[in-house]
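Side project, low priority. Logging it here so it doesn't get lost.
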Amino acid sequence: MKLYDFKGAPNPRRVRMFLAEKGVSVPVRQVDLMAREQHGDAYRAINPWCTVPVLELDDDTCIREAMTICRYIEAIHPEPALLGTTPVEQAAIGAWEHKFEVDGLIAVGEVLRNSVDAFAGRALPGPVSHEQIPALADRGRRRIAHFMDLLNERLGESGHVAGPGFSVADITAFVAVDFAARVEKDIPDGHPHVKRWHETVGARPSAQA
């Protein structure tokens, strides 16, 4: 297997953390997104969607999208279980993971891609050009505030995002919080549960992946 990665992007980091939690080592090939290598013919042959991450299997099958890769890895390396072991656990983890991907990661991406000059004409990832819409950056900032509030509320009820145990939902939320700190601002005051949880997850070796 081979992982196509970009060290500074949040979605490949989700996969790297997942692999680290599993204790699975995969060769990594860096794709230079800043030089727009993802739009070149060589990378388009691997992923015509022009995004990372991609997991390339030994038979040349290419698996796109972070959570799809995580589900594949879980299927071939089921321990430790990060997607749940019972139907109820799997449903809870899946729901919280998706919620914080949309309200966290995507909201931060909305701010970044609609406010930074380097993304002019590239307001959405992929092969199609889209112009920036400044109002979406403003909306994204409001969405980030809501994400932090909801995450703090949830972590006041539960030790981890989807229940008592660490799961892929924690990985997505943790990466979203770090992404928000890079793009907009750190964990706001008045969110003690997020700060406690972020310190706990940040102490795991996988957080350095």
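Brief comment: The first strand starts at residue 2 and ends at 5.
Revisit when time allows.
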